[in-house]
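Shipment paperwork, digital attachment
Item: protein structure file
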Amino acid sequence: MKLVAFLAAAFVSLTVHAGDIAACSDPSGKGYFPETGIVKKADSGWQDEKITGGITKLPKIAEGEYDILFVDTRKDIISARGDGGTVIPLNRGEKSFSVLVVYPGKTAEVYTFLENASGGLEYLHTLSRAGDGVLITKASVMQGKCSYIAFDQL
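Attachment content:
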């Protein structure tokens, strides 16, 4: 029985990994915090942002359906879909792919995975967060490196 459970877990693990389109990490960039809500004037404005050890993955969960998995600053693994987000493919090129993640009434994010002209793999993450249910209003853009992007698996 233990062998069956182990084989089932291994199969699920391989299946999940086989659906990974991109794996990226260590995003950094800039964020803008307006003087609203709990953000005071002295704390508002542009700030450097970095998520050391932050990981972002793009898994394909079904034909034309994707998710964003990420490890945040608290080192929690979060699924955008599991957290109430809707993940919508935006564009697909030969060496780029973007998805929009919408958390209704709160946040819109765009993740773009690409191969640059030098052959490097990277991703861009833009965010706009505002609304009555948001404690900290914010706009940001970050960039990170990717260890792989499987454009042929989109």
